[in-house]
């Protein structure tokens, strides 16, 4: 089948203005190359370098969003594409905005009975000692509306809390202090109505931060995860439920911690996950027998129509 006839002219949105620009360029290039190998009339488009209305002027029929973080994963680009009537990959405006905001994600999940680490919002006026006493140490301090663990710290002492807050506050006015869950780090990739095989992440040093995600060769990934079929299935069901509670669709990734007693805690949902050589969704897809090219085509086929 000539995919070009099916999808028309496709813009792969990459780059953008967020702190994750470089990763987005890598994801976008991988997506673009895969689409072209399958005969799709695909072109790169960086919304930080040209206005969005160019998409209409140049006759694009569909957008594959490979943007990460703000101005790409937070509902803003999705809203612009809906105004133009262009179908786009991933979740809609509201779901994208909610998933980007880890605090509001948690509020919805808690209301729906989804297990997520305890947390409080931090400000400069917060009683840091009281926060540490309430949540316990260690703590994770992070911006509510950033991705790729940018601005994230793990602290083991109250005296480190002000500096960790300041680092996170450079990236966002909303800063979360979150209970640290000791245990196994997992991620559940979502494709359509299916949760793909879980990926287990093992990090040297114990913190899956920006360096561990994108730069280190010491981070290990296991897919199959090593969990029993029953354990894996239960987490996949929860991940799908959490994804749907936010109104997410198309594809995405739900990050999970499994504590030492086997209790899963859902951390966040990513509506435009990475598609680089280190990325987790392609890894899970491979374990399900889906090649990278087929994965990209399936995501494009699930494009959101506003």
From TrEMBL:
Mg(2+) 2 binds at residues 268, 270. One of its GO terms (biological process) is regulation of cell shape. The keyword Transmembrane helix does not apply. The active site is at 20, 148, 279. The keyword Protein biosynthesis does not apply. InterPro entries: ATP-grasp, ATP_grasp_subdomain_1, D-Ala_lig_Van_CS, D_ala_D_ala, Dala_Dala_lig_C, Dala_Dala_lig_N, PreATP-grasp_dom_sf. PANTHER family: D-ALANINE--D-ALANINE LIGASE, D-ALANINE--D-ALANINE LIGASE B. This is D-alanine--D-alanine ligase. It comes from Nitrosovibrio tenuis. The lineage of its organism: Bacteria, Pseudomonadati, Pseudomonadota, Betaproteobacteria, Nitrosomonadales. The gene is ddl.
């Amino acid at each position: 089948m000539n995919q070009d006839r099916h999808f028309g002219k496709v813009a792969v949105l990459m780059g953008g203005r967020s702190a994750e620009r470089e990763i987005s360029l890598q994801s976008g290039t991988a997506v673009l190359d895969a689409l072209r190998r399958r005969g799709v009339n695909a072109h790169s488009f960086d919304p930080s370098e040209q206005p969005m209305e160019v998409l209409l002027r140049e006759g694009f029929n569909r957008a594959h969003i490979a943007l990460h973080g703000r101005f790409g994963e937070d509902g803003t680009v999705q809203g612009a594409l809906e105004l133009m009537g262009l179908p786009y990959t991933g979740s809609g405006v509201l779901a994208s905005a909610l998933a980007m905001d880890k605090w509001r994600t948690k509020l919805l999940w808690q209301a729906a009975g989804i297990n997520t680490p305890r947390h409080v919002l931090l400000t400069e006026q917060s009683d840091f000692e009281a926060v540490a006493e309430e949540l316990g140490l260690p703590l994770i301090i992070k911006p509510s509306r950033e991705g790729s663990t940018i601005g994230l710290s793990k602290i083991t002492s109250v005296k480190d809390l002000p500096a960790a807050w300041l680092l996170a506050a450079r990236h966002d006015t909303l800063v979360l202090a979150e209970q640290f869950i000791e245990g196994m780090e997992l991620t559940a990739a979502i494709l359509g109505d299916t949760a793909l095989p879980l990926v287990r992440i093992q990090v040297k040093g114990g913190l899956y931060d920006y360096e561990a995600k994108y730069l280190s060769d010491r981070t290990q990934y296991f897919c199959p995860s090593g969990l029993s079929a029953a354990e894996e299935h239960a987490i996949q069901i929860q991940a799908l439920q959490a994804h749907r509670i936010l109104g997410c669709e198309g594809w995405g990734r739900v990050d999970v911690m499994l504590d030492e007693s086997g209790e899963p805690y859902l951390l966040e949902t990513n509506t435009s996950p990475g598609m680089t050589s280190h990325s987790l969704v392609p890894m899970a897809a491979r374990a399900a027998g889906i090649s990278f090219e087929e994965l990209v085509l399936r995501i494009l086929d699930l494009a959101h129509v506003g």
